[in-house]
């Protein structure tokens, strides 16, 4: 059976990390498959959102597979290659033109937490526990955690979490802004994440992609350059048939019927 399960319902694709015996640890092959699945979903213009979760009740993902890491030994070049591949996979997910929602059902440690941080946003079960414990093993987060966590929670909080390996409860993660959604009961996790995905899927698909594009620009460029990007994307949205339908539907007090974007 595959280590990554895919299921589609309407315009939402759900991807499940499926290595329950290993707490859904991330192998290089699994990360590559996950990246490929997200990219394939984004290339399908009838897909409007992606949900990523973990198999079983214990873990979203307990992190990178240490069996793979340990065999690298002192091979510096190979270690660079493995870390770069993991970073590239999460960066591709982070930059996906459709929203990627992490539904975190348990442990999200190391690379698992880094995957959460690379998602568009996360929904957490009350059982969720997040952390970057690498320093205890003489390692550091290598899939973008040292860069994304400070941006998410601030430098001091991030430094404390990474240096001590302290875990965030779901409630504390919500307080810090790691998730925008209050934690939900375990049995409500996937229904809640799917409902949010379906809400987004009902929005204008070109508008959703434009918002993600503009928000991505906000991470990497000065404000003035970001505003220029926003101006162009907003103007294209106004001039599109999608906005014509959206405004007409609002005026006529009906639900809009947005076409799938053209390639």
TrEMBL record:
<protein>
    <submittedName>
        <fullName>Enoyl-CoA hydratase</fullName>
        <ecNumber>4.2.1.17</ecNumber>
    </submittedName>
</protein>
<dbReference type="GO" id="GO:0004300">
    <property type="term" value="F:enoyl-CoA hydratase activity"/>
</dbReference>
<feature type="region of interest" description="Disordered">
    <location>
        <begin position="236"/>
        <end position="263"/>
    </location>
</feature>
<keyword id="KW-0456">Lyase</keyword>
<dbReference type="InterPro" id="IPR014748">
    <property type="entry name" value="Enoyl-CoA_hydra_C"/>
</dbReference>
<dbReference type="InterPro" id="IPR029045">
    <property type="entry name" value="ClpP/crotonase-like_dom_sf"/>
</dbReference>
<comment type="similarity">
    <text>Belongs to the enoyl-CoA hydratase/isomerase family.</text>
</comment>
<dbReference type="Pfam" id="PF00378">
    <property type="entry name" value="ECH_1"/>
</dbReference>
<dbReference type="InterPro" id="IPR001753">
    <property type="entry name" value="Enoyl-CoA_hydra/iso"/>
</dbReference>
């Amino acid at each position: 059976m595959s280590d990554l399960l895919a299921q589609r319902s309407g315009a939402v694709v759900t991807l499940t990390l499926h290595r329950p015996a290993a707490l859904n640890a991330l192998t290089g092959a699994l990360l590559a498959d996950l990246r490929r699945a997200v990219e394939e979903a984004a290339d399908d213009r009838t897909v409007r959102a992606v949900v990523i979760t973990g198999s079983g009740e214990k873990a979203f993902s307990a992190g990178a597979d240490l069996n793979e890491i340990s065999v690298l030994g002192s091979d510096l070049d190979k270690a660079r290659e493995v870390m770069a591949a993991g970073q590239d996979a999460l960066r591709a997910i982070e930059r996906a033109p459709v929203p990627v929602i992490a539904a975190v059902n348990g442990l999200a440690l190391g690379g698992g937490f880094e995957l959460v941080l690379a998602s568009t946003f996360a929904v957490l079960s009350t059982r969720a526990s997040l952390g970057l414990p690498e320093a205890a093993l003489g390692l550091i987060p290598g899939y973008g955690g040292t860069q994304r966590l400070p941006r998410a929670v601030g430098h001091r909080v991030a430094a404390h979490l990474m240096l001590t390996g302290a875990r965030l409860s779901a409630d504390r993660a919500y307080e810090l802004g790691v998730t925008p959604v209050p934690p939900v009961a375990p049995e409500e996790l996937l229904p809640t994440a799917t409902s949010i995905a379906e809400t987004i899927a009902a929005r204008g698909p070109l508008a959703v992609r434009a918002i993600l594009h503009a928000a991505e620009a906000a991470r990497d460029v000065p404000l003035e350059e970001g505003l220029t990007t926003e101006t162009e994307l907003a103007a294209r949205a106004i001039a599109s048939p999608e906005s014509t339908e959206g405004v007409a539907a609002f005026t006529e007090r009906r639900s809009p019927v947005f076409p799938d974007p053209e390639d």
